[in-house]
């Protein structure tokens, strides 16, 4: 992930851009059920991060994610859920801010990618979820 920050204006004709590259942190979860939470939960997650969790269950099963908490910086930090192992898989959920809880997301495959991205500003607790097979 690459973040472009607002340019610093030194004079009216030039801009100085700051570019930050963020390397994703990936965790693999295998099994019928488990718990998923943002880093440092219930404290705040780190700034300028891209966290990913690949969940894999038995072939021919589907996955249900049940979210008990979702709290990110609205419009700047996002939670994504993909119906497959990569960010190129079908997007099932894109949320930012707080959500009425609990809520569930169901996959159509036995693999799900959960992704939390954060910018350099404020951080929040993030999310807490459990997953199980359907």
From TrEMBL:
Domain CUB per the UniProt entry, residue ranges: 25-134
Organism placement in taxonomy: Eukaryota, Metazoa, Ecdysozoa, Arthropoda, Crustacea
Superkingdom of origin: Eukaryota
Keywords: Disulfide bond
Organism of this sequence: Daphnia pulex (Water flea)
Protein's name in the database: CUB domain-containing protein
The UniProt record lists the keyword Disulfide bond: yes
Matching Pfam families: CUB
């Amino acid at each position: 992930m690459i973040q472009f920050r607002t340019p610093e204006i030194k004079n009216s004709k030039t801009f100085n851009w700051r570019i930050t590259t963020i390397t994703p942190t990936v965790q693999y979860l295998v099994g019928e059920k488990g718990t998923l939470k943002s880093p440092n939960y219930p404290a705040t997650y780190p700034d300028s991060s891209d966290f990913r969790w690949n969940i894999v269950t038995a072939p021919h099963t589907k996955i249900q994610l049940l979210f008990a908490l979702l709290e990110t910086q609205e419009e700047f930090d996002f939670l994504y859920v993909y119906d497959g192992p990569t960010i190129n898989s079908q997007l099932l959920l894109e949320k930012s801010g707080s959500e009425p809880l609990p809520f569930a997301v169901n996959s159509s495959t036995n693999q799900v990618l959960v992704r939390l991205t954060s910018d350099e500003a404020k951080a929040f607790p993030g999310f807490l979820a459990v997953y199980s097979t359907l």
